[in-house]
């Protein structure tokens, strides 16, 4: 299957959540996890290389896509194979939308969309939702409240939640703003990090299992 972390906005938490989700799956699922870094900044890949210095073994491989002018999915069959595979293929995208992402966004099984409740983020999230509509994306959209601050009153939350729920699944448990998530690496999930994401991720996994009628 293909699970893509994407949204229009930089800094929304895509890469952090993608790393945490990949690490979490390695703990809770027997399926093989593969990561594809499709962001020209290569944050996920660079972190994964840097983490070679740690004394922990690799949990998964990370492949860079879209480097130079290469078009990774000229042959759509490659994408279909990844989609139909029993392995879990995680894609991390850049915050700038590009034509080269169209096929991936159209044919992913799931698109996980982290968002915040600032005005800018709300607009970007809605623009991204519209883009998925234009692409006639078949993917299930899963919206995740990211970097959520418990002590803050988000005035636009009720309206935004209502709007978002029309276009996909809004995960109940937010991913809270946490220092421990700023230092995440690609080789393990500390107890504290796991605690910060498990409710959210369990909801997402439940949704995946229900949609595809499988157990990952
Ligand atoms: N839940 C969180 N709590 C605290 N900091 C976070 C959280 N999620 C992301 N961050 C921080 O926010 C910044 C942007 O996150 P990142 O995952 O790189 O976003 P994106 O990939 O969408 O650009 C990073 O410095 C990251 O450490
Ligand atoms: Mg990123």
Sum this structure up briefly.
By secondary structure, this protein is of the alpha/beta class. It has helices spanning 14-28, 43-50, 76-84, 102-107, 119-134, 157-164, 191-212, and strands spanning 2-5, 33-38, 61-64, 88-93, 110-115, 140-145, 169-170. The mean pLDDT is 95.
Would you give an account of this structure?
This is Chromosome partitioning protein. Residues 3-121 form the CobQ/CobB/MinD/ParA nucleotide binding domain. It holds the Pfam family CbiA. The chain is built from 7 helices and 7 strands; from the N terminus they run βαβαβαβαβαβαβα. The protein is an alpha/beta fold. It has a single domain (2-212), classed as 3-Layer(aba) Sandwich (Rossmann fold), CATH 3.40.50. It has a 7-stranded parallel sheet, with helices on both faces. α5 (119-134) links the parallel β5 and β6. The longest helix is centred in the C-terminal third of the chain and has 22 residues, at 191-212. The radius of gyration is 16 Å and the shape is globular.
Distance separating the two termini: 10 Å
Strand content: 15-25%
Total beta strands:
7
Low-confidence stretches: none
CATH architecture: 3-Layer(aba) Sandwich
Which molecules other than protein and nucleic acid are bound? adenosine-5'-diphosphate, magnesium ion
CATH superfamily, by name, is P-loop containing nucleotide triphosphate hydrolases
Mean pLDDT: 95
- Summarize the helix and strand pattern as letters: EHEHEHEHEHEHEH
CATH class: Alpha Beta
């Amino acid at each position: 299957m293909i699970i893509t972390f994407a949204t229009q906005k930089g800094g929304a938490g895509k890469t952090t959540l993608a790393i945490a989700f990949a690490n979490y799956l390695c703990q809770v699922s027997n399926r093989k996890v593969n990561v594809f870094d499709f962001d020209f900044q290569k944050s996920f890949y660079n972190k994964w290389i840097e983490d070679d210095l740690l004394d922990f073994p690799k949990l998964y491989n990370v492949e860079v896509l879209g480097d130079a002018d290469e078009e990774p999915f000229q042959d759509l069959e490659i994408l279909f194979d990844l989609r139909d595979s029993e392995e879990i293929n995680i894609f991390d995208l850049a915050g700038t939308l590009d034509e080269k992402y169209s096929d991936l966004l159209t044919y992913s099984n799931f698109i996980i969309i982290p968002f915040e409740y600032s005005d800018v983020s709300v607009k970007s999230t809605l623009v991204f939702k519209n883009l998925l509509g234009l692409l006639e994306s078949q993917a299930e959209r899963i919206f995740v409240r990211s970097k959520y601050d418990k002590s803050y009153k988000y005035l636009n939350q009720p309206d935004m939640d209502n709007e978002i729920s029309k276009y996909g699944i809004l995960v109940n448990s937010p991913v809270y703003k946490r220092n421990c998530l700023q230092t995440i690496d690609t080789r393990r999930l500390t107890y504290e990090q796991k605690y910060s994401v498990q409710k959210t991720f369990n909801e997402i996994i439940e949704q995946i299992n229900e949609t595809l009628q499988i157990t990952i």
